[in-house]
């Protein structure tokens, strides 16, 4: 049995820092999103991190970044120790120092370039900045919030520099060529009316086989993956000012009711609520 140690500190509603170590078997696997930016640094273990349908394989030292409303979940290819630290910050926590500090992160397309590899984390000193946050939150004092804000601002600047200068395009980590073929077909056709039968015919495989294979390799059913991709587009269109009642056809949904139910299921709120909150947090 692995000893589970947890250190969790929350000093202000605009940020949270946490360090946790636990067996992977105790981690709930669920689709979720946040209203804040999240930076997860894997210290030990191996896992698959799925962001908006793109799957990244993480090892020690790697970082995953997700923006507000970016849908994500994790799976473990094998039982392991899951040791990580994460920083969750709202825009107003550090934007008072530099109003455009999140611009590069906000320009990143949902589900793309979420992974910062460990060598870049070290090269840009992000690991040292996280160490600084850890130090100041271990025994909090009157300087903690201020120091965390300074470290957090530097982390955002460093990540922005990596996205600008390195421009990492993180390929899907799934190695099976059939999985890649399924994902390629969905990417090319998700705005149309397609089914599992269509996918199976296109790649010349049995419908039942690809359904089992995809669920086993990716962790979610094909139709869930397809709907996530459609909802991702819908979120981007809404945040770009699209009208709620006019975008469902652009996202591959046959009618507004089906779109509304899928959006509510995967996002946790209605399209109008999402659009309103996105405008408030912009």
Task: Characterise this structure.
With 282 residues, this protein is an alpha+beta fold. It has two domains: 5-165, Jelly Rolls (Sandwich); 177-280, Arc Repressor Mutant, subunit A (Orthogonal Bundle), CATH 1.10.10.60. It is 44% helix and 19% strand. It contains eleven helices and nine strands. It has a six-stranded antiparallel sheet with strand order 1-2-8-3-6-9. A three-stranded antiparallel sheet has the order 5-4-7, with no helix packed on it. A hairpin with a 2-residue loop joins strand 4 and strand 5. The model is unreliable at 1-11 and 168-174 (pLDDT under 50).
Write a short abstract of this structure:
The protein contains 11 helices and 9 strands. By secondary structure, the chain is of the alpha+beta class.
Keywords, separated by commas or semicolons:
Jelly Rolls, disordered N terminus, 2 domains, Arc Repressor Mutant, subunit A, 44% helix, 282 residues, 3-stranded antiparallel sheet
């Amino acid at each position: 049995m692995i000893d589970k140690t947890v250190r969790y500190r929350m000093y202000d509603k605009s940020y949270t820092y946490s360090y946790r170590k636990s067996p992977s078997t105790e981690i709930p696997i669920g689709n979720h999103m946040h209203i804040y930016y999240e930076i997860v640094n894997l210290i030990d273990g191996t896992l698959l991190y799925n962001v908006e349908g793109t799957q990244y394989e993480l090892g020690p030292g790697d970082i995953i970044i997700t923006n507000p409303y970016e849908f994500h979940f994790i799976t473990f290819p094998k039982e392991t120790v899951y040791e990580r630290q994460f920083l969750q910050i709202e825009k107003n926590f550090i934007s008072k120092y530099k109003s455009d500090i999140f611009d590069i992160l906000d320009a990143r397309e949902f589900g793309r370039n979420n992974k910062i590899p460990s060598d870049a984390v070290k090269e840009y000193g992000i690991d040292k900045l996280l160490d600084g946050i850890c130090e100041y939150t271990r025994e909090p004092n009157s300087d903690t919030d201020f120091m965390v804000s300074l470290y957090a601002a530097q982390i955002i600047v460093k990540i922005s520099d990596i996205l600008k200068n390195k421009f990492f395009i993180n390929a899907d980590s799934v190695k099976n060529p059939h999985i890649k073929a399924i994902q390629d077909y969905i990417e090319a056709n998700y705005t149309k009316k397609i089914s599992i039968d269509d996918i199976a015919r296109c790649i010349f495989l049995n419908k039942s086989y690809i359904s089992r294979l995809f669920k086993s390799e990716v962790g979610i059913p094909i139709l869930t993956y397809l709907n996530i991709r459609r909802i991702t587009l819908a979120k981007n269109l809404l945040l770009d000012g699209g009208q709620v009642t006019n975008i469902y056809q652009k996202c591959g949904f046959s009618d507004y009711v089906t779109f509304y139910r899928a959006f509510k299921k995967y996002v946790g709120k209605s399209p109008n609520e999402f659009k309103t909150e996105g405008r408030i947090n912009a």
